[in-house]
Amino acid sequence: MLRSQTFLSTWSQERSMKWLVLLGLVAFSECIFKIPLRRVKTMRKTLSGKNMLNNFLKEHPYKLSQISFRGSNLTTLPLRNIWDIFYIGTITIGTPPQEFQVVFDTASSDLWVPSIICNSSTSTHVRFRHRQSSTFRLTNKTFGITYGSGRMKGVVVHDTVRIGDLVSTDQRFDGVLGLNYPNISFSKAIPIFDKLKNEGAISEPVFAFYLSKDKQKGSVVMFGGVDHRYYKGELNWVPLIRAGDWSVHVDRITMKGEVIGCSDGCTAMVDTGSSNIQGPGRVIDNIHKLIGATPRGSKHYVSCSAVNALPSIIFTINGINYPVPARAYVLKDFTGNCYTTFKEKRVRRSTEFWILGEAFLRLYFSVFDRGNDRIGLAPAV
């Protein structure tokens, strides 16, 4: 197992958490990482369960070159889903290790968790206790980040981060582990995937997501290789619009054979950190009108009895159709009412821009190939 140190940082989020610790990454790996994911319905209910993929520890994963890895060791880690919004898993930070729940997010590049120095009324988050870590080292570098859900600021520090076969019994969402390109990093720390890649800790510069439709178990993220048993048929490779961002070109969006979006083509980011499919307000409003959804608060609702009759919405990407049926874009809230996962994306761009989040990715197994700057998509099993 390789171990190295890199940057970690402390931030504040001005909406709900005053201070957070942002951690740049430290790589711990064997040949391939494979991390099973488990969905959590709420933050407050404890869901029972166990690691459902331990039986895969001795398998031979599928390599992109169609050659199996022989004798590869797989490290597994269960993750959960909070409110059907985020898939989270356990990492550890510091020496001795302290456990944290983080989102594996392809839209960001920084790793952060809350710090004990946070001045916040939010008490459900585990906080990093830097004085208890013998490998902690402070720097004088500060920075700030603005997210769609709030602003954050902090100071960069050094410490050790581990990813391993850890079983979490906690359902708190503590932070984010970014898997985007290093040029997206606000802290300028080396992202964890780049550490794994640069130190030769993974066999190939790829990672992949299988997001199970099961609300509690079965989901997995894997590093360094691809297991073909999680998808049907062949992977369809889509080149990135540019190296440095997990965004692809969408040819068009259709419903019942009619173009309803991306009439001249558009850009879409494949985002494992978002639960929704997001797009321009005018297009989202039109989709809601076409399916008879009515606004209520921040969501748009449809009759649950009508879901089976609602049409699929088809995203055509690199000449391949990716249908999203109503059973995928409509979810139930905690009261049993049905709402859509289509949401307006407020972004200042000269061209049409979309976010393909978990509502899309639960249907399609996704491979993020840093070596060739492309994304592979195939129907999930």
UniProtKB/TrEMBL annotation:
Ranges for domain Peptidase A1: 87-378
InterPro entries documented for this protein: Aspartic_peptidase_A1, Aspartic_peptidase_AS, Aspartic_peptidase_N, PEPTIDASE_A1, Peptidase_aspartic_dom_sf
Pfam families in the record: A1_Propeptide, Asp
Annotated keywords: Aspartyl protease, Disulfide bond, Hydrolase, Protease, Secreted, Signal
Residue positions of the active site: D105, D271
UniProt subcellular location: Secreted, Extracellular space
GO molecular function: aspartic-type endopeptidase activity
GO biological process entries: proteolysis
Main location: secreted
Disulfide bonds: C262-C266
GO cellular component, one term: extracellular region
Membership in a protein family: Belongs to the peptidase A1 family.
PANTHER family: BETA-SITE APP-CLEAVING ENZYME, ISOFORM A-RELATED, PEPSIN A-5
Name of protein: Peptidase A1 domain-containing protein
Organism: Bos mutus grunniens (Wild yak)
